[in-house]
Records
---
Amino acid sequence: MDVETQNDNSPNVKAWLGAMRLRTLPLALASTLTGGFLAMEEVSLNGSVLFMTALTTTFLQVNSNLANDYGDFSHGTDNEERVGPERAMQSGAITEPEMRRAIWIASILSFLSGITLLYLAPLSWMIRGVLLVFGVAAIFASIKYTAGRNPYGYRGLGDVSVMAFFGILGVVGAYLCQTGEVGIDIVLPALTIGAFSTGVLNINNTRDIESDRNAGKITLVVKMGPERARLYHVGLILLGCSSFVAYAWMHFAWGWAWLFLAAFPLFALNAYRVFTTREAEQLDPMLKQLALSTFLFSLLIGIGQVL
């Protein structure tokens, strides 16, 4: 009987894991790790703060993924024309009430985790208040990307949101939670992670351009067209790489701190393949490759700081 129960439940577990899109989590963690590792120039790394920052980021990413599954299904975007992997609600494995409940749970966990992070971080009460506002905004933004009435992801604003929350808030927030203060130059690595993260979204939207256009989902790719979207992607990769080199030039002595350069060939390969690939189905592996390359990049930053 235990075996039968396990077999009956396993498809649903697989559906929930698919809806959470675990392959996107390394990308979300990259902003946390980058901000935390760069803070090691100024302070000793606070492991508890880094863990809570990573946990909060993970909850936010999962919440965004669940809401995206719900929103695209509700708006009819996830249909038989879609090129990417079949979504959980699209397949019928998860119902609308179940997904709404999961989004509420993920939102609450994101909030509680964020509150704990702000309590542990060495911040003034004024900065805690500011970050709390931004944190609540991040929860709201993670849901409103495709869910609800007039979602901003259907108006070509998804790229701006990714840059703001994955890049600026993610990196600067993680750095600030470690050090208690920031300088304007931290915006450069924030632009780096923001650009790479936006590149992942751009690959996704380039892959899905036909189904998105037919469903009325007006992404930036739909507005600019596939050829300009590929040029835009190359520009994002160049922006990400050059921004961090500029930061490193100002902060790092030559040596192990420049180990992050080892990830640049992976970014160059991604830009080349996205630019030259015309078949939508063949773009999907490039999405995962860029996410993992960004995560590796953040790890190399940390290794370089330690060495």
---
Amino acid sequence: MVLVTGATGILGRVIVLELLKRGKSVRATKRTSSNIEEVHKSYRFYTEQPQEFFNKIEWIDIDFEDQDSLTKALHQVTEVYHCAAQVSFHPDDRRTMYHTNIEGTRQLLFACENSSVQKFCFVSSTAVLDGVDDNGETTEDSNYNPKVNHSPYARSKHFSEMEVWRASAEGLQTVIINPGVIIGSGNWQSSSGEMFEAFEKYPYAMSGSTAYVDVRDVTAIAISLMENNRFGERYIIISETKKILEVANFVRQKLGKNKAKMISKEILTIGYLLNILFGWFFSKLRMMSKVNLETVTSHHIISNMKIKKELDFEFIPVLDSIDFHLNNYISDKK
């Protein structure tokens, strides 16, 4: 039995589906408020037998604060893919995100200690990686630097990773994957699923670049790493780094919209100053924090050579990925 947490998320649902395609028995966690019918609907984008595979899922409501709930979820489970996490870049979500991401991971790993679990895959983020190598690239050796200003999300993922490394040192077979922005279908109102609606709605884009990867690639790599016992390691999973403006215009052109305009640094500076002056009163202004603005205006080169070499893996090009999932977004809007 395999347990996938966060199974209604953009990545978790595809990992569940791929495991089912491989004949695995899968237990999928969700919140009591989760819309699993939306997951079912999205499966038509990934398989010609969506109903058949969806019916094989063993859904379970889980409370990461309740050890009895976790023990029940882990009954007869030998492998865990921990995808559950809260993703937010709003400072008001900091406490909730720390609790969900860090404490939730800690409690799940504690529950694994006295269970049948043998393998554990943790989904982290490239946001935890700092510094560059001699070639000016961020790699798996670019360790988190506590002296650098990070978003609450990046901090929550870093400390979650620390829990995984602790469990690894104590004998659990673990692997950490660090994907960039995951492009997928369904879950259009949450996390990276909001990307298409945002590019459609707003006729402007930030000046920076982002590392993207297709959800199908992340899924294939995560499962391959577990099957091939690549434990005690971390792997960056990205396809390419693209300018945000280029991606925005690719999406907008396909949707019949005018080209987006790049927001100047001067305007962003004004936004940052308004945040300092009035952020205490206007919640949306607090998004204009220094770390958020640095993220969307910077250009980092992130290397995917480790995973390409070890698995001889070829990634789906970013624009091909966006085209596939954008067509699904358009289909869902009809």
